[in-house]
Specification:
The complex is a heterodimer of chains A (253) and B (308). By secondary structure, chain A is an all-alpha fold. Chain A is 77% helix and 0% strand. Chain A has one domain (3-247). Chain A has 10 helices and no strands. With 308 residues, chain B is an alpha/beta fold. Chain B folds into 2 domains: 5-222, Rossmann fold (3-Layer(aba) Sandwich); 227-307, Alpha-Beta Plaits. Chain B is 34% helix and 28% strand. In chain B, α3 packs parallel to α5. Classes of the chains: A mainly alpha (253), B alpha/beta (308).
């Protein structure tokens, strides 16, 4: 194992985060705080409790998920796309590193950033609403699994994208709607039966539901199923990345 | 002993159908400076990129120090440093940090003294804490050379390293190559400046249309394929070459003020002594003379032209 290479990539990517600390950390914290002010306090005060949890507290897990999914994709897709764009990727391709080591460096750093952001948002939320975490280990498991899975997804996106537009189109047109329709701001049991059924095809529903269960023991779907879907998504992303490195798709001509 | 790099039956056909390399066989000797020459699009960069692992070969094998570049990529890539043709550099990193990154990427433990010596050898020490985006093109070229040397490679590929750089950097680069030669590093140099290959290379390979058309020891190549020319500056203008001198390969130039004699460098008998004797006998006087030998550039142009 080339530990020095993993460390070099990881440190390089973390340094990028600290260079752009406003964009990396302050921006998601600010936008999440605004969500709490608008949905938690202004509108939330007029909404009754959901499954015995105040609306402000209810949306905390969903907002954390919304932020870490967006940030994970954004960080890891940019991390691999930018060297492709500038041409510096030649150095990684010519280095004595396996695809697993490249992933560990890039995805590890991006996932670390996402976990930091998730933790900061959780801390920020605690200033606005009461938060209790019923199952801390499950909460951390979901947090890390989601960060890693979506960082892998972002990595694939960064390799696939051959222009800046493609890099932003998937998060805006696919991920954002799935997240908003995945139960961030509501329980899917509040939807009409047909929409409840349709929602079950949205993988984000399972992530948010499982994560929310770790806080309040309330879930739209069984927590085991949530965990299974999350792991399945992670494995699917790993398989795609493995194929990408094996074939050199959009990396090696 | 294994050659440092052994390439056998290497072909590359890109997705669009363009065949960049056609059954290339090539051996690079340990510790030599090998000049790979060829016109634009000849396949030089594709060949280098395959050896370095950036491009996948369509068929054929490449071994570095006896290790296969595909199945034993860790061993081969750790030995190779590459200075690419373009200038891809990070933007916000400092010069020293980008060298630390490269060294780590190639599996080497941190060594600040080595990084310092590389930076100093390329006159970059004063710029060590400067962000890469603040550097000029020439300085970026130096940084790329420094990055390639940061992990102490056994083999260094220099793909057009002095394209568009000033004389000072070219001289610095030549000094670095000379230093590497003394350390036993194998250097493969592609260049448009044939003068550079003439100055540095031990052996020369010429590639054209994806095929290696010649590999030869540089001095032998210049001896075998080069022509020598003797130019005599005449006292009196000549209208025609005297009949007595018709057996020599002579040409008149500069409106009859110069007599040019082409002779074979390989021949034991150049004919110069006889020519001078016959000139005296025919009363043709000269006040100066000079000799010139074909440059590697002329040989290269001739080879590529013949291959078309």
């Amino acid at each position: 194992m080339n530990f020095h290479a993993v460390k070099a990539i990881y440190r390089f990517e973390m340094a990028r985060m600290f260079r752009t600390v406003v964009q990396s950390i302050v921006a998601p914290v600010l936008s999440t705080s605004l969500y709490f002010v608008i949905f938690g306090s202004a509108i939330g005060s007029r909404i009754t409790e959901i499954d015995g949890v105040s609306y402000g507290s209810f949306i905390v897990p969903g907002l954390i998920m919304l932020s870490i999914m967006t940030e994970s994709i954004s960080n890891s897709s940019f991390a691999i796309y930018f060297p492709k764009f500038t041409g510096t990727i030649f150095e990684v391709l010519s280095a004595p590193v396996s695809y697993g080591e490249v992933l560990l460096g890039y995805v590890g750093a991006a996932a670390t950033k996402s976990v930091i952001i998730g933790t900061i948002i959780l801390a920020t939320a605690s200033f606005f609403v009461d938060i209790e975490i019923a199952h801390p280990v499950v909460m951390v498991t979901f947090l890390i699994l989601t960060c890693v899975s979506f960082c892998l997804f972002g990595f694939i996106l960064g390799i696939w994208a051959d222009g800046w537009e493609k890099l932003t189109i998937v998060p805006i047109l696919v991920i954002m709607p799935l997240t908003f329709l995945g139960g961030t701001f509501y329980s899917i049991s509040m939807l009409p039966p047909t929409w409840q059924t349709i929602s079950l095809f949205n993988p984000v529903v399972y992530l948010i539901s499982g994560f929310r269960w770790s806080f309040y023991e309330n879930a739209d779907v069984a927590v085991g199923l949530s965990l299974g879907i999350t792991v399945a998504f992670l494995v699917a992303c790993l398989l795609v990345v493995r194929w990408v490195f094996k074939t050199g798709y959009r990396l090696r001509s | 002993m294994h050659p440092k790099i052994s390439i056998k039956g290497l072909t590359k056909t890109y997705a669009g159908g363009f065949q960049a390399l056609k059954d290339v066989d090539l051996e690079i000797h340990r510790g030599e400076i090998f000049g790979l020459l060829g016109p634009n699009g000849a396949g030089k960069t594709t060949l280098i990129n395959i050896v370095c692992g950036i491009v996948n070969a369509s068929s054929g094998t490449v071994h570095v120090d006896g290790h296969d570049i595909v199945t034993e990529f860790r061993e081969t890539r750790a030995k190779i440093g590459l200075v690419p043709q373009e200038l891809p550099t990070e933007t916000f990193e400092t010069v020293r940090d980008t060298l630390r990154f490269s060294r780590g990427l190639f599996g080497r433990s941190p060594d600040e003294s080595h990084i310092e010596s590389v930076l100093k050898s390329l006159s970059l020490w004063d710029k060590r804490d400067t962000k890469l985006m603040m550097l000029s093109g020439g300085m970026k070229r130096r940084v790329l050379i420094a990055k390639a040397l940061s992990h102490e490679p056994d083999v260094l590929f220099l793909d057009e390293p002095t394209a568009g750089v000033d004389v000072e950097l070219r001289q610095d680069m030549w000094n670095v190559v000379d230093l590497l030669r003394q350390k036993g590093v194998t250097v493969i140099l592609t260049t448009h400046y044939i003068e550079e290959a003439e100055q540095l290379a031990d052996r020369v390979g010429v590639i054209n249309n994806g095929e290696i058309i010649l590999v030869e020891e540089k001095n032998k190549l210049m001896r075998d394929m080069g022509k020598k020319q003797l130019t005599l500056h005449l006292y009196d203008e000549l209208i025609d070459i005297p009949r007595e001198l018709s057996s020599y390969a002579l040409e008149l130039s500069d409106s009859g003020r110069e007599l040019v004699y082409n002779y074979d460098t390989k021949g034991e008998h150049t004919g110069i002594t006889d020519l001078i004797q016959d000139l005296r006998n025919t009363g043709v006087r000269f006040n100066d003379l000079q000799t010139a030998q074909s440059s590697l550039e002329e040989i290269f142009v001739d080879l590529v032209h013949r291959d078309r």
